Write a sequence for this structure.
């Protein structure tokens, strides 16, 4: 290992040791009860709530997936995705956060998302809880796999180690850390990781712009690529067997720009709808210590989100100007942030930047693993299989499930040609369409019924698979992002089934009214 790579490795190891230290520090408190382990005892302050929500939400795709999209096909896809995410972040914090914090406390002091849905509709037979838990298991496994792919690509690109080896090693580290520290350790470390992420994004953006000759030079270079800077078109790399071709003059070849029409923009903006169903974000809303602190959290989260998304998209554009021939496949394009960091920064600073990717990945993967484990242990094992299960039994089962999910995630992530952005987009659509509509209707429409909730979750979750695997390959109208049609269908089903079923009980309606102004 060269001296430069050794310095990068040392910086990353120091960071990992610090993260483990946080986990060990909170281990005793986390193991006091399942509420502490899964929700931190509802003690998060506004800064930790905001920053941990965004860090766990954005994951490694913010530093690898999104810049990779901008590098590969230009501004449009990355820009509209970022706009949708930014708007979705703000609206979710503005409308959902405070109501969910209040309602989750009223509805049986719920500590998981399936808990809340089940308690909201006063279930005797835990059908909603079971369905929600199963969908969370499925989509969290896919999401965790995307995080493992990020770790594998990062270390493989940096140190030339076989992808599968480092991917598995990274997964083992994440599992160990999550088992030890639980939600509180995860949230506190995510706060620190959010700071690392935004710092390295802005720093690499500034240095990259300077080295490329300034903003005007980057724009001039980008304009030479057909469709690269268009908002209603996109660059089309000329490919042979998935590899972009190079001209005799040494420049990457592009074909005629592709069309990026209104329907495509609408479907890309729909990424923002996913926020209403993201368990890792919704749990932060439930865990903040006081509902009145959510306003401050919203401002912090929104500012962090817009700055980070802007920098990530810009890095992809700048990377194409600086290194046009370095990354010739869509999968390798997701390493543009790694390439720029190692080429442009001193080794120690590059190590900090790489720690930023590691931070993003850990912050998301531990969230998804913990959410999936809690969904099974708390909602299916204790809620359905063994209702008299003790706290110790619940926590033991959660750790077993966490390990099993990690193994499945590793199997999914074994393919090193996986595109992080694609894997994340599917899991994002799954969460958004399954839980987003029913979350919004549960919080804001008193007439929503248990039958409507069940039908809405199933229709939304199933439609993601149907649209992605069966309809999307047909192209044309069906080529839109699966989240949008699945979300709309789920909303329609909830309304129709709720209106056709019996009105909610007076007790449920009373709690609904209380949640509007309940102080907690």
């Amino acid at each position: 290992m060269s001296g430069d790579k050794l310095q990068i490795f040392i910086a990353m190891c120091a960071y990992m040791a610090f993260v483990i230290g946080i986990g060990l520090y909170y281990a005793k408190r986390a193991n006091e009860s399942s509420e502490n382990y899964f929700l931190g005892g509802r003690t998060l302050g506004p800064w930790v709530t905001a920053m941990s929500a965004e860090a766990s939400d954005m994951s490694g795709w913010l530093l690898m997936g999104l810049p990779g999209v901008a590098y590969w096909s230009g501004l449009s896809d990355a820009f509209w995705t970022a706009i949708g995410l930014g708007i979705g972040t703000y609206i979710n914090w503005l409308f959902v956060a405070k109501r969910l914090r209040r309602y989750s406390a009223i509805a049986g002091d719920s500590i998981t998302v399936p808990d809340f849905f089940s308690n909201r509709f006063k279930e005797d037979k835990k059908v909603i809880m079971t369905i929600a838990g199963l969908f969370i298991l499925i989509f969290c496994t896919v999401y965790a796999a995307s995080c493992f792919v990020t770790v594998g690509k990062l270390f493989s690109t940096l140190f030339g180690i076989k992808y599968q080896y480092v991917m598995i090693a990274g997964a083992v580290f994440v599992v160990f850390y999550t088992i030890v520290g639980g939600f509180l350790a995860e949230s506190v470390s995510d706060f620190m990781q959010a700071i690392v992420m935004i710092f390295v994004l802005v720093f690499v953006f500034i240095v990259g712009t300077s080295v490329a000759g300034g903003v005007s030079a980057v724009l001039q270079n980008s304009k030479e690529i057909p469709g690269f800077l268009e908002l209603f078109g996109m660059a089309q790399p000329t490919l042979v067997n998935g590899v972009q071709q190079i001209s005799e003059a040494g420049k990457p070849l592009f074909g005629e720009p592709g069309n990026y029409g209104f329907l495509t923009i609408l479907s890309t903006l729909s990424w923002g709808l996913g926020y209403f169903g993201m368990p890792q974000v919704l749990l932060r809303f439930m865990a903040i210590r006081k509902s009145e602190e959510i306003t401050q959290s919203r401002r912090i989260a929104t500012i962090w989100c817009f700055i980070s998304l802007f920098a990530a998209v810009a890095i992809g554009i700048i990377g194409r100007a600086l290194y046009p021939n370095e990354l010739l496949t869509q999968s390798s394009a997701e390493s543009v942030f790694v390439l720029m960091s190692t080429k442009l920064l001193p080794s120690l600073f590059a190590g900090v930047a790489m720690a930023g990717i590691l931070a993003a990945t850990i912050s998301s993967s531990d969230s998804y693993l913990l959410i999936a484990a809690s969904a099974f242990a708390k909602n299916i094992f204790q809620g359905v299989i063994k209702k008299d299960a003790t706290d110790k039994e619940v926590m033991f089962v959660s750790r077993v499930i966490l390990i099993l999910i990690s193994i499945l995630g590793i199997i999914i992530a074994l393919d090193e040609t996986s595109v992080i952005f694609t894997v994340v987009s599917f899991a994002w659509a799954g969460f958004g369409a399954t839980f987003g509509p029913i979350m919004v209707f549960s919080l804001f429409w008193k007439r929503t019924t248990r039958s409507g909730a069940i039908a809405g979750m199933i229709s939304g979750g199933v439609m993601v698979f149907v649209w992605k695997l069966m309809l999307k390959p047909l192209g044309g109208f069906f080529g839109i992002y699966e989240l949008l049609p699945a979300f709309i269908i789920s909303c329609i089903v909830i309304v129709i089934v709720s209106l056709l079923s019996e009105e909610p009980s007076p007790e449920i309606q009373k709690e609904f009214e209380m949640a509007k102004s309940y102080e907690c």
Notes: The mean pLDDT is 86.
